[in-house]
Amino acid sequence: MRFGAIPRPTHYSEEPLNKFSVARDGLPPRQRRWAVLTVCLAIFMTVIDQTILNVALPAIGSDLHIDASASVWIVNAYQTAIMLSLLPLASVGDILGYKRIYLAGLLLFGMTSLGCALSQSLFMLTSMRVIQGLGAAGVMSVNMALVRFIHPVNRLGHGIGINAFVIAVSAAAGPTIASAVLAVAPWQWLFAINVPITIMAVALGIYALPETPRASHGFDALSAILSAIFFGMLIAFLEGLSRPGDALIETAEALLMLVSGVLLARRQMRMALPLLPVDLLRIPMFRLSAGTATCSFIAQTLAYVALPFHLHRIGYSVVMIGLLMTPWPIGTAILAPIAGRLSDRFPAGLLGLIGLLAFATGLAALAVLDSAGDSANVAWRMCLAGAGFGLYQSPNNRALQASAPRNRSGGASGMQAMARLLGQTSGAALAALALARASAAGAVWVAVAFAVLAACVSAVRLTESPQAA
Question: CB–CB of 90/78 below 8 Å?
């Protein structure tokens, strides 16, 4: 296999696109810039809403007169709604067009943000968060599919790198922005600030986002129901691993998960364009890239959860731990766009192998720390882990998109988001289990093992031929 084997066009058209056609060479430059801004605004809002509320939960609980355990549902409702609706909405995007689903999801997200800000009870706030999660899923399910049509083939990695940079910055900025807002305003403003940003993003999106070809098949409602049951029970089962519960309920959840999963898989195998993209999983590069993503996000979430406990045990204060965790997202944000450019020239398997081994090395260096010392000694380890993750992520996302046929971009985009969410959910459950049964350092070592596994899966891709975007 030789480097630079990914086919690249030598020119792109400056002509405006027809209503239902998108050229392989992406949008004209001016329209592309506005489309990128639209995507950045949408991703910033939907990603930051997954982390911004953690800081505000005590204030929300006090204002609504609810206890801490009940307030957690404000966060969980959003995450669960996203996970259950991702694949169905990706399928709807194939049928109706990615632009329509994206803008509809974005508009729903903004409207329910206002509903969250006006909520006067836990029930109303949680209900709004569920609907807000559906709006966010509309954005996330087809986001990468739109990125694929926005950028020309020879700059697809660059476009994905921008996306990864925004995600990294959003995830890192959530707690900081929440603290800044809460210092001068009540918690309702954490939701209200989404409204003007949404209006701007929707207005830009109507003009700038590309119209894409639409599939001729109908929507498979039964598969959507089976998918929601399967992933819902999977979430419940994974969360049950980390806490004691009723054995009968846990057994019922496991059985329902298995039955719905088998029925879903059998139904999808018989379909030409399945909702659960088993057709794409038959493509070796796509399958390996999805596996790499799942393992890497398990490792990342395990580390995110366990490292604060590990650093606290060896003597660092809570305030210092927050500062020491900052180099991680900074490293990711710096390397992600650079890796995106590199992915247009070098194989994802190679960049992923190097990045994930660096990620594993940084985690291992953190796991062996046994006492508080010079802050720089922790900072470089955090930066190495984050930079390694950033080096892997953009090329891996590009490989996922480029290995799927263009008419299955929605399925590929939904599967990419699902791999991330499955990894994060599994990682959180494994972290809780490791913290309960072993130690924080032991949980970090488990993260190292998953990072190495992801590197090995990525290395296998070097034996596969690259495919055109």
Answer: no
- Token pair listed for 205: 């999106």
Per-domain boundaries in the chain: 24-215, 221-270, 277-469
**Which CATH number is 24-215 given?**
1.20.1250.20
Q: In a 10 Å sphere around its CB, with 0-12 CB exposed, 13-18 middle and 19+ buried, how is residue 247 labelled?
A: exposed
Whether residue 301 contacts residue 428, with contact meaning beta carbons closer than 8 Å, is answered with yes
Confidence of residue 245 (pLDDT cuts 50, 70, 90): low
Assigned token pair, 309: 């406990």
| Same fold for the pair 24-215 and 277-469 | yes
Fold of the domain built from segment(s) 277-469: Growth Hormone; Chain: A; (1.20.1250)
> Tell me: the pLDDT tens digits for 406-433?
778 888 888 888 888 888 888 888 887 8
Place of tokens 């490792």: 299
pLDDT score of 465: 62
Residue 60 in tokens = 């929300």
For 191-199, what is the mean pLDDT? 93
Highest mean pLDDT among 29-38, 244-253, 337-346: 29-38
pLDDT digits (tens, 9 = 90+) for 428-465: 888 878 887 778 888 899 999 999 999 999 999 988 76
Residue at token pair 């296999």: 1
Strand spans (E) along 115-245: none
Q: Is 338 left (phi over 0), alpha (psi -120 to 50) or beta?
A: alpha
Of 343, 339, 341, the closest CA to residue 403 belongs to 343
Residue type, 198: T
